[in-house]
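User: Study the fold:
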Amino acid sequence: MKSIKLPQGLYNSIEDRLEAEQDALRMKFILEQEALEAERKIIEAKGSRDAQLILSEGLSEEILKLRGIEAFLKLAESSGSKLIITNGSEIPFITSPE
């Protein structure tokens, strides 16, 4: 079998073309990955939105008060000092001086 030697200009043109095709394929892959990531983020955001809507529909003033009482009970069982600020009718703001 004979070895074929191409002129340098033709050889460079073929190499440049192959390299350009590889770059185009690489860019296409990157764009597809970015599109999939964008779609994933949209799905995640819609899921979070739907979860918040479901939670907000189920929240009522009574449930919030019950959660406040549960928080007070947990707070009373914990060690350390506490500072509780409330006006009596609203859900209290709880903080620790530590």
Remarks:
- Helices lie at 8-58, 61-77.
- The chain has a mean pLDDT of 84.
- Strands lie at 83-85, 93-95.
- The chain has two domains: 7-58, 61-98.
